[in-house]
Design goal:
The structure is a single chain. The protein is 0% helix and 40% strand. With 60 residues, the chain is mostly beta strands. The chain has a five-stranded antiparallel β-sheet with strand order 4-3-2-1-5, with no helix packed on it. The protein starts with 12 loop residues before the first strand and ends with a strand. 13% of the residues are buried. This is DUF3553 domain-containing protein. Pfam families: DUF3553 (PF12073). It comes from Rhodovulum strictum.
Length: 60
């Protein structure tokens, strides 16, 4: 099974499973395992995609 992060690309909306208070974030870039996301409540955060599986949001 492919990791969920492998489908992420810039512009997609995601949530961080361990930080629900960050709100919905928009993927800015994906470079290897590093995923830069601009979250509504937390600003820009770089996620280690090897450790954290972001959850795509299909309806906001």
């Amino acid at each position: 099974m492919k990791p969920m992060n492998s489908i992420l690309e810039p512009g997609m909306l995601v949530r961080h499973p361990g930080q629900p208070d960050w709100g919905t974030g928009q993927v800015q870039s994906v470079i290897g395992a590093r995923i830069a996301v601009n979250f509504r409540e937390a600003g820009k955060v770089v996620i280690d995609g090897a450790r954290i599986e972001l959850m795509p949001v299909y309806d906001s």
